[in-house]
């Protein structure tokens, strides 16, 4: 029994080291691609130039929780504010708002759209992805459906590493903008969950796993999809 217990313990340690080590590899391999951390103090000329260095076609804002009154959660609001700041600075000509709309009663893209329009962004410069069910799927669809080869990814820094790694795996030239304007509740849970998520998306990138939905191409270089739906 003691030998079996010792063997099991060794296997657990090896597995834990692999899981944690792979997560560290992902973060270290793309950390240099984060060109701006938005702390609410604005975008400097040097940071804007770094973002523009890849001539991005769009700014991809990744969705997250929406509150019951169709208002963005603090994390989502900060992502949107960062994306809008980049757009206003002329970093890229289009915004691609990607999120979950897997059920009728819940739509991250519609909430993101409403907030973005309220901030004065022209509808013709906004594209919506209603099938961004995960980070990997949002990145995959940005490339396969919206034909974006060069983009800025916007989300919180802890989340940005796997998004950028997915871009690398799928042949997308990308820079990251971390929307870290404040501290958010549940940090420890998110950090632990993110370790597993980084590992999962790393292997998805290796096999080029396809997303839940693809559909017709909507080139990001054209008019925004918002012109083709009912505006709020």
Structure description:
- Helix 1 packs across helix 6 (157-169), helix 1 (2-30) crosses helix 7 and helix 5 packs across helix 6.
- A six-stranded parallel sheet has the order 1-6-5-2-3-4, with helices on both faces.
- The protein has helices spanning 2-30, 45-52, 74-88, 108-118, 135-144, 157-169, 187-207, and strands at 34-38, 58-62, 95-98, 126-129, 150-155, 173-179.
- It is globular, with a radius of gyration of 19 Å.
- It starts with a helix and ends in a 25-residue tail after the last helix.
- Helix 6 links the parallel strand 5 (150-155) and strand 6.
- It is α/β, with parallel strands linked by helices and 232 residues long.
- The protein has a single domain (2-228), classed as HUPs (Rossmann fold, 3-Layer(aba) Sandwich).
- The protein is built from seven helices and six strands, in the order αβαβαβαβαβαβα.
């Amino acid at each position: 029994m003691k030998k079996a217990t010792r063997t099991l313990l060794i296997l657990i340690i090896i597995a834990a080291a692999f899981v944690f080590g792979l997560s560290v590899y992902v973060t270290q391999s793309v950390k240099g691609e984060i060109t701006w951390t938005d702390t609410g103090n604005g975008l400097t000329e040097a940071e804007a130039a770094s973002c523009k260095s890849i001539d991005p076609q769009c700014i991809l804002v990744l969705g997250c929780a929406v509150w019951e009154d169709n208002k963005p959660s603090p994390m989502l609001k900060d992502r949107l504010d960062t994306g809008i700041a980049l757009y206003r600075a002329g970093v890229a000509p289009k915004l691609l708002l990607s999120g979950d709309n897997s059920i009728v009663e819940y739509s991250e893209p519609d909430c993101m759209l409403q907030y973005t329009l309220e901030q004065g962004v022209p509808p013709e410069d906004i594209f919506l992805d209603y099938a961004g069910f995960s980070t990997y799927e949002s990145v995959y669809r940005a490339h396969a459906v919206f034909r974006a080869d060069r983009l800025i990814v916007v989300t919180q820094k802890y989340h940005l590493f796997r998004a950028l790694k997915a871009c690398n795996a799928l042949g997308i030239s990308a820079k990251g903008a971390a929307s870290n304007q404040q501290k958010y509740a549940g940090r420890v849970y998110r950090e632990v969950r993110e370790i597993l998520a980084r590992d999962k998306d790393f292997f998805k990138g290796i096999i080029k796993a396809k997303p839940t939905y693809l559909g017709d191409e909507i080139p990001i270089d054209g008019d925004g999809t918002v012109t083709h739906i009912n505006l709020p």
